[in-house]
Structure formats: structure tokens, C-alpha cells
Amino acid sequence: MASWMFEILLGTILVAGLNSGPASDLFEVDVKQLADIWEREHISPPDPYSIRHAELKQHLTRAQSAYPSLIRVEVAGHSVEGREIFLVTMGQGRERLMLWSQMHGDEPTATSALLDLLHFFGRHLQDPWVAGILNKYTLLIIPMLNPDGAERMQRRNAQGIDINRDARALQTAEGQLLKNIRDRYRPFLGFNLHNQNATTTVGDTGRVATIALLAVASDPPPGAAGAPAPARSGVLAKQATAVLYEALSPFVYGHISRYDEEFNPRAFGDNLTLWGTPIVLMESGGNPAGEPPNFGVRLNFVGLLAVFNSLACGKIQNANPAVFDALKQNSDNPIYDIMLQNGWIFTGTGVPPFRGDVAVRADARAGARGTAIIADIGDLGVFTAHRTIDCSTTLITPGLIAWDPRKSLFADGAPDSAYLERGVLTLLATAQWQDLAKNRPASREWMTRPRPVNWGFLLAGSPARSSDRDQLLLAEWLSAGARAWISESFLGMEAVPRWFGIGSIESGEALKYQIPASWEGEICKVLPRFASEAAEKFALPRRGLIAQGTVADLVIWSVPGEAAPVDLSACKPRLVMINGQLIDLAQPDRPSYGRFIGR
């Protein structure tokens, strides 16, 4: 059999498989099979927040090399700092579809999905429904519009301007490029791909909004006196959102919302629509509990393919625009990652414990590199969380901070788990002066060594003489992350610690922060020393306190009964939370969530 006949037969078999799922009036493909294909074939990384401009460039080069007859990559322009902004085109149809991602640098989910789409089209070019899309349309893809923001993982560009609010003034190179591409190709439909706050919920349901959709307003509301009429959305854009809703509901039913559709005179989506290209906004939000970080990548992949197929086969005409109107709007009532309910809260200062809730939120936009924070405290009963823990018979305190003079920075000692069992989540080890000359300052490998606790170090001792070399050595170790210098005699080197804002303290004072043999005494008198006071003494910002915005390092102590605990000797650590990750102290297997505390 000729090879081209085999390819056609294989394509027919594949599309038959994709059509064998539940019938839909809006598309021909089986979305669950598309999801399975993504699971098997996707080339995007597990963490969508890990891609930077250099990685994107490598991915595009490989895709163009693998499928030279399909994928065309050009440098459409440059960012403010000179990074290439790529335009990828596929297909040969006269009608054009335009997609762009990461105009906000810290919103990368769709960037990964677009890379997966490039490889999908290359691998499945012989599938009749795929060929149908590429024969009818030309896809215009800008996978990373704001590479400078992406490099910093920040919303705005290098000028500090929100590109999505630059459609009128066009002060950004990136915004000018987006408009020029629109004006040059005049696509009949565009997809503006973003991430939204991971704590956003769907209406009054309390469910996380995993996907938010918007058919962008096609005209500004009238400026007459009184309450203006709402701006109208384009019919085609509404139909596309209806297709997206049906395609994604099997995966996230109840987690799809409607984005705020008020007309914004500065926004690109609104102005592109006015200029003649209807825009669909798709915002990737927080994931339902248990889903992996790249769950939104799969949803973007499946949803976009379903819309392309719906357009190409004409079934989009069956889509009811009223589906978009019926979607519940995004709600300002957040959903948190963890809620510690109705516990006795000791904030880390001398304030007595009080009843309340503690909400914890991870920084989803930073992925594994992000920091989980205390999002709120007090009466939080009107909010929801992915995980709720009854703390009515517990005391919630900040993770304790302590110095162990016996724990050498350069030698293994007692297992770190022994500190967790005492409620010490941030451990300061000791680096003796006589050992410094034998060891260079901490390498990156050393700083990133996985440990169950957060850890840093104090410098102890002093040289027998002062020399330029000694001062340089001290400066190197202070810059590597030392929290203080414990020395009885400074020998003319007193100024060096001040270069780094590091205090020099007497050894007797430092011993105040040594872990006691047992915890006992009044909570409000004993614990502040190892919480807020230690954090201030050793320059550990956002630690040692339970307050909005502080790091989510917490100890949950069991207490006898429901009365307010007074004496610490009656309390025992039961759970600890390090950077928002809960560790059960009854379990022998304790993952390493701790971090090196450096400069």
C-alpha cells in the first residue's frame, strides 16, 4: 500500500476514534480523548510557571525543526528590553484566528498549552478534522507577549506598564506589536489567554473558579445620565464561550464562571473588538483540590481544540449565546487553600491567645518557588477552603525560631525531625570561625539542600588578628546568609556586619534563643522570645508572627480541653505547617519542605 494511502487510512481511524465518544451538537471531537492525548503527548513542563523566554525560544526552534512544512516562526518584534516576541503561524486558510498569551508576565498557563498545540498539530496533521482546521484557517499565535515581565514573573512590562491597559495610549512596544499584528492580518476571532487569582470563586457556590470566560463587550455603554445599559458582547464570541463551556464541563463542572464584562476603554480585548476582531477572554484560575499544577494547561488545550473544530465544521452555529449570559460571575469571596477553624491563636507577641480562624493561601503564580502566606485571621466562617481542619482543641502559634549552638553547619547532627517535634520550624546552626577558612561560602547546591526545617546559621568566634583577608572572608559568609555574628572581641572588624545589616551579639545574649530542655511556663511569656523577638533579632522578615502576609509556618499544639491554654507544659505539637504544607508529626515519613534562609 502506498505510504500516502496508509496515512489517510490511519487518519480516518484516528478521527473515528475521536468521534466515538458522546455526541455533541457543538463539536465533532471527543474531548475526553483529547485530554488523554494531551496526557500522553504534551511537551510542556509539569510546572507552567517555570518557562522563561530562553526555554520558549528552544521549544519554538524544536517545533519548527520537527514540522517545517507546518510551523512558521518569525520574530514579530522586541520587548522593551530587547527580547524577541515571536509570532507562530500554522495553516493556509484565508480566515485567520489569533491567540496570545502572557501579556501579563506572571500568567503563563496558556503559554504551555499553546506549545502543546503546536506539537499536536504536527503529530496529527493527517487527521481529517485537524487538516480541516488548517485548510480553512490560519492560526496566528503569540505565545509570550511580555517576555520581560515573564523573566521577572511580574504582571507588568519593563516600563512598569500593564500592557492590557495600554490599548489607547500604545506606550509599550508590546502593545504596539499586538495592534500591528491585528491590523495586518485582521483575524475574525481572537483569544486573549490569562490567569486570574487562584482564590476566585464561582458566584455564591464557594467553588474555586478554575476557568473564567468572557465574550468581550463589543460596544461601550451609552453615556446618558443615570444607570448606563450594559455593553453588548458579540454573538460569535458568546457562541465560542458556549463551546468552551460544553467542552470543559466534563472536567470542571461547577468550576466555570463568567469574567467581569464591564466595558474597559483602556483594555486590549475591548478595543480589539471595537477595531473589528471579536475577542474571547479565557482566564485560568485555581485548581480543584488534588489536581496537579498543569491541570489548567490541559483545559486550555482541550477547550481551544474544541472551538477550532466547532468553527471548522460549522457546528458553532448551534451554540446558544445565552449559555454565556447564564454563567455565574466571578465572586470576590475567596477560596483559600487551608482553613484552620476555631483554634486558640497566639500571634507570637505578648497578646493572649484568642479564638479564631487562620486562612492560608499559596502563591500559585510562583509555583513551587512561591511562598504560602497567612491570608487572613479572625472570623472567617463565611469563606471556604480546599481543606478545612477543626482546631477547636488546639493552640495555633507561629513556627518557632531557635539557635542550636551544638548544631554545626559543617557536620551532620541530630535529625531535623527532632526540631519539628519541639515546634521549631526555623533552625539556626553554628559556623565556627576556625571552620570558615576550610570552607568557602555556601554554594547554590548547599543552599538548596532539601531539609525538613527552614534553616540558616550564625557565625561564632573571631580571628586571632584582623586582616584584609579576614574581613573579606567574614563579608563572604555574611552575604551567604549569616543571621548574626557572635563574638566577644571584634578586632577592628565591627564595621563588616553593618554592611549587611547584621547585628553583632554577645554569646550570652544568643544563648537566650537556645532550645530549652522542655517547654513550660506561661505561653505569653515563654513563646514570644522564640517567635517575634527571635525573628527581629536575627533579621527574619515575615516570620515569627501570625499576621496577614506573613509566611505560613505554623505549629498546631494539642491542648487539654476547650479552655484557653495558659501553661505551655500542658501543650504538645501535633501538626506543623511549613510554607503552607502540613506535616503530621505522628507520621515517620516527613517530606522536606524547609528552605534555606539566605540573602
Characterization of this structure:
This protein has 599 residues and is an alpha/beta fold. The protein has 2 domains: 3-219 and 231-331, Aminopeptidase, CATH 3.40.630.10; 400-542. Helix content is 29%, strand content 23%. The chain contains 19 helices and 23 strands. An 8-stranded mixed β-sheet has the order 1-2-4-3-5-9-7-8, with helices on both faces. Strands 11, 12, 13, 14, 15, 21, 22 and 23 form an 8-stranded mixed β-sheet that branches. Helix 5 (128-136) crosses helix 10. It is globular and about 80 Å long.
Question: How are the secondary structure elements laid out?
Answer:
Layout: H1 3-18, H2 31-41, H3 53-66, E1 72-78, E2 84-91, E3 95-101, H4 109-123, H5 128-136, E4 137-142, H6 147-152, H7 173-185, E5 189-195, E6 201-202, E7 211-215, H8 235-252, E8 256-258, H9 268-274, E9 279-284, H10 295-313, H11 322-326, E10 330-331, E11 335-345, E12 354-361, E13 373-378, E14 384-390, E15 394-398, E16 400-408, H12 417-420, E17 424-432, H13 433-436, H14 444-447, E18 454-460, H15 468-479, E19 482-486, H16 495-499, E20 504-505, H17 507-510, H18 523-526, H19 532-537, E21 554-558, E22 572-578, E23 581-584
Parallel strand pairs: 3-4, 3-5, 5-9, 7-8, 11-14, 11-15, 16-17, 17-18, 18-19, 19-20
Antiparallel strand pairs: 1-2, 2-4, 6-10, 7-9, 11-12, 12-13, 15-21, 21-22, 22-23
Helix pairs in contact: 2-10, 3-4, 4-10, 5-10, 8-10
